[in-house]
Specification:
6-stranded parallel beta barrel; 12 helices; alpha/beta
Length: 554
């Protein structure tokens, strides 16, 4: 079925599979089945709406709603959200059921839900079982990490995103089972690599892109099981060490190598998608998956569509950040081990939830915030099973009249300004565009900057401990930043110069390495067959189908 997006005006299609899925999950309460209406927004706008409710990077000085003491939080002080430490949130000193209230038919569901959001305390950050990681969020089972987010099982890492089982890693994203990384992106099983992208099983490599099983390679692309290669040419070990030493002498020469690397990347051959061991899948960065269409960053998934970032999950439509055997969800963000949960935010070990947020080990709840180990609750108020079904039916009937039933939480009630969220990473807008939509834009709380007075040596061997006490200024945006003791230790170990840009500018450049989460029809640059890819047809890169790609690099 063809439709026109109510937001962008662009045409999109609601497939028969999607229509069947919505019929399958339509709930029955009080003997009445409540069909879920077909979406009025395109998949892109639905994804934007979801991830505008997720801040996984920025931390702010806030105030503990229990003690009044200062604490770091993903929520800005003006967010209207009450925050407390994660330890307090999980303690017995409070119970979210105390904030229970009745639903009023004369008011909109989302307005009443937003009022509940502003009353129930939220954990200041999302962290689990970490040691010495005070400046982190969405981090679990990690040790000695600084400003690392959306990661787990890491140690001695700084300024990273989506790292798993990584050690001694700086300024890297999408890294798995790797150690001693710097400015790496989408790598797996790599060791002692710097500026290495989209590679697996490499070690002692610099400025390499799309390499597998390589070591001692410098300024190389599209290589498999090579050693001592310089700009894709085989050289002796002695010649290799001589050539790279000219580039690694100081920061100025590193920048020159980076310029050459950027030029080489534009000429390399790209596979239509980063897909490994997949069957009937479209999208990008998909591993061990089946029947996943228009999906991105998927691992061990099956029967999904319009999903971004899912691990070991199945039967999902329009979901983001789904982990650990979650199953059967629609328009949901941030789950772990859930079943039959829809229009929800950050729910863990739950089943049969609708329009709920920040709930743990709950089932059969509707419109609740912050509950733990509860069932048959509505707006945090406890009901008996029969009364629960009757009240839910009444609320859905009211939502049908207001047009809210089947819609996700509006961006307007997100506790985060648009520019603090993942939406700004994947669907960037200017401040003017955000304000024109009546969404919030967060002001820069670090406007006051200080000029850099310390002259940073170009060679790491000339850098002393004194750098730990000075304030540096970013060469790109002017913001101040400092070097951490662990950071200096790793720069010395990896023989890297002190960076001249702040962590946020470095992060933005890494994110630019990824294409947008959008599929295009174009032809293989070699054989001419039709392919679906995230490379737009007008882009100049050489994009090949899988067969042609493998023929060229194997």
């Amino acid at each position: 079925m063809k439709k026109v997006c109510a937001i962008s005006g662009k045409k999109f299609e609601v497939s028969q599979e999607e229509q069947d899925f919505l019929k399958n999950i339509a709930p029955t309460f009080e003997g009445e089945k409540f069909d879920i209406p077909l979406p009025e927004m395109s998949p892109e706008e639905r994804a934007r709406q979801r991830v505008s409710h997720r801040n996984e990077q920025f931390l702010f000085q806030n105030k503990n709603s229990f003690s009044g003491k200062p604490l770091l939080s993903i929520y800005r002080p003006d967010s209207e959200v009450k925050v407390c430490s994660r330890e307090e949130w999980f303690s017995d000193v409070w119970d979210a059921i105390d904030f229970g209230r009745d639903f009023e038919n004369t008011k909109s569901f989302f307005n009443q839900y937003h009022e509940l959001q502003k009353e129930v305390p939220y954990a200041a950050t999302v962290t689990v079982n970490n040691e010495n990681c005070p400046y982190a969020t969405s981090l679990g089972e990690s040790k000695n990490c600084f400003l690392v987010n959306s990661s787990d099982y890491c140690e001695d890492c700084l300024y990273g995103k989506l790292l798993q089982h990584c050690t001694s890693t700086i300024d890297s994203s999408f890294g798995y089972k790797s150690e001693l990384l710097y400015e790496c992106f989408s790598v797996e099983n790599c060791y002692d690599c710097k500026w290495v992208y989209y590679s697996q099983g490499c070690h002692d490599c610099w400025f390499c892109d799309d390499c597998r099983g390589c070591h001692h390679c410098f300024l190389c692309t599209n290589l498999v099981k090579k050693e001592y290669y310089f700009m894709n040419e085989k050289v002796s070990r002695e010649e290799y060490e001589k050539r790279i030493s000219d580039f690694l002498s100081d920061h100025k020469h590193i920048l020159k190598a980076k310029e050459i690397f950027d030029a080489l990347r534009k000429k390399r051959i790209y596979k239509y998608a980063r897909a490994v061991n997949t069957e009937n899948c479209t999208g990008d960065f998909i591993i061990n998956a089946k029947n996943c269409l228009d999906c991105y960053d998927m691992m061990g998934t099956e029967d999904c569509r319009y999903v971004q970032l899912a691990v070991e999950s199945r039967d999902m439509f329009d979901c983001s950040n789904i982990y650990d055997r979650s199953e059967l969800s629609y328009n949901t963000l941030g789950t772990m081990n859930t079943f039959n949960c829809h229009f929800c935010l950050y729910i863990f070990f739950c089943s049969d939830l609708w329009y709920c947020e920040q709930c743990f080990s709950c089932k059969n709840c509707f419109g609740c915030v912050g509950l733990r180990n509860k069932q048959y609750c509505i707006f945090n108020k406890q009901y008996k099973k029969d009364s629960y079904e009757k009240e839910v039916a009444r609320i859905i009937q009211s939502m049908q009249k207001t047009g809210e039933w089947g819609q996700f939480f509006p961006i307007e009630i997100s506790p985060f300004p648009y520019n603090d969220t993942v939406a700004q990473d994947y669907f960037p807008l200017t401040q003017k565009e955000v304000l024109e939509k009546n969404w919030r834009w967060g002001e820069d709380l670090n406007k006051n900057t200080h000029p850099q007075t310390y002259d940073v040596p170009g060679k790491i061997t000339d850098v002393t401990e004194a750098i730990l006490k000075v304030i540096l200024a970013c060469h790109s945006c002017g913001k101040n930043y400092r070097i951490q003791p662990l950071e200096l230790t790793l720069y010395r170990k990896m023989k890297l110069p002190i960076p001249q840009e702040c962590p946020h500018c470095r992060y933005k450049k890494r994110m630019d390495l990824r294409n947008s989460r959008k599929l295009f029809e174009r032809k293989c640059g070699n054989c001419g067959i039709e392919i679906q890819t995230t490379f737009a047809p007008e882009r100049s890169e050489k994009v090949y189908c899988e067969k042609c790609y493998l023929d060229c690099i194997e």
